[in-house]
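Data card: per-record layout.
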Amino acid sequence: MPIVKSLHWCDEAATARFARALAALPGVRQAYIELQGHLGAGKTTLVRHMLRALGVQGRIKSPTYAVMEPYELPGLNIWHFDFYRFSDPREWFDAGFRDIFASPGLKIAEWPENAAGCVPPADLIIQLDVQDDETRQVTLTAQTKLGASLLHQLANSAPDEDRP
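The structure for this 164-residue chain is written out next.
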């Protein structure tokens, strides 16, 4: 049974605080996180803040055209996927994504529904919904034991001001 939690982010600073809190959790280094939301919801912005908090230096590109951007840190591999343009499951196998998902490290995917049937169940799903006032309603769904652990730890570390 998935575990669900709701948050409200009033601005990009709230997004950054959440990203830092998530990045600080040791378990995130082995997680698969799916980001869901419409274009412009803030998925890539969240990833950029998170990768910065993990120690990624230099340019953090959106993988919209490349489908995947890898990042190597000491003791940590990170893969940022964007399946927006993904259309054929054969691409998944030809690109070696199955091997990446089977290896240790953090995997973050935008537009995971376009790779349905190929990607494993996410540890944590982060759904971003833009509200009329441009704030974000955020729904966190844990689908695995690791995801539940991350969600529990986040509940104890997320700033109160970001809660509804």
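Known properties of this structure: The radius of gyration is 15 Å. Confidence is low (pLDDT under 50) at residues 160-164.

See the next section for split statistics.
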